[in-house]
Amino acid sequence: MKTLTPLMRAVVVHGPDDVRVDERARPTPGAGEVLLAVEWGGICGSDIAYWKKGASGTASLAHPLVLGHEFAGRIAALGDQVTGLDVGQAVTVHPARPVGDGVLPERIAGRTNLYPRVRYFGSAAFDPHTDGGFSEYRTVDADQIRPLPAGVTTEQGALAEPLAVALHAVGRVPELRGRTVLVNGCGPIGSLVVAAARYRGAGRVIAADLSSSSLAVARAMGAAETRDLSAGQVLPEDVDVVFEASGAPAALGPVLRATARGGTLVQVGNLPGTAVAAALGDLVTREITWIGSYRFVEEIDDALRALGDGLDVSPLITHRFPLERAEEALAVAADPGSGSSKVMLRLGSVRTP
């Protein structure tokens, strides 16, 4: 009698405006791997880009791709040679894996986010692509597994990855304690930067955006003051530390002007890879230190500690959808008029801790 291979469902993008819930064979863990029963996933801008354009940044689809790099669940099975983890344990995942010998120049030693070739869950940067975690099950290398602290739900754990991005950005400034901070752009990452800055001891956080709903989330995440740029309000002046999280070239001029003389501007939002018009004169005349921030190194561990300490990320979550409504979830996340911040997918049955 022939044994049937167990199947699972996965959110798969096949091309621009073509996302499907496909059936795929349920994977089995090999040596050094863990089988994760995925419970929650958070939709990111790159997921939307693959769905809308068939590409994210310089990475273009050559084959169907399972979306998702923000996800968490419980261990369903352990492969051979895996120790220190248990079936049923609630975990999330570090989604990056450097490709190559891992050696970096001494000046950036340890900064693995700057490694020239990195496989990332839910990315088409390589061929074959690296499938993501928007599926009912996913095998993961055991050393990419991160156990959740006691009391942290898998829904919260799925937000550890974007929180790690925010903590990395905040960590690019040596000392925030007591300082005034401006965050321009209050999408999910910007609002998490607000929370991360407060968690790291910033004295006063001001948030600015064109969307009143995004500003409401930023306030709930710890902003003491907000500026609604769509209503004619302007950015404050002479702010010590500024985080630019919108990625809009048109914002650069006003953001540089808002930064105090001798202050620091951290660029968190991804800027276009093509030529753009931007007013940058204040970078020189105000002697501003302009720092880039890209993904994270091991700050996902810091993110889990922060969640365990009680950092509340729940105001970020505005919508929840089941797996079978993935296309609707992506549409809500992509629609500026929906009032969405972080849109979550329930990918499997969720157990109470």
From TrEMBL:
Cofactor: Zn(2+)
Pfam families linked to this entry: ADH_N, ADH_zinc_N
Protein name according to UniProt: L-idonate 5-dehydrogenase
The family this protein is said to belong to: Belongs to the zinc-containing alcohol dehydrogenase family.
Keyword Metal-binding attached: yes
Keywords: Metal-binding, Oxidoreductase, Zinc
CDD domains the record matches: idonate-5-DH
Species per Swiss-Prot/TrEMBL record: Streptomyces tauricus
Enoyl reductase (ER) domain boundaries: 15-345
InterPro entries (alphabetical): ADH-like_C (IPR013149), ADH-like_N (IPR013154), ADH_Zn_CS (IPR002328), ER (IPR020843), GroES-like_sf (IPR011032), NAD(P)-bd_dom_sf (IPR036291)
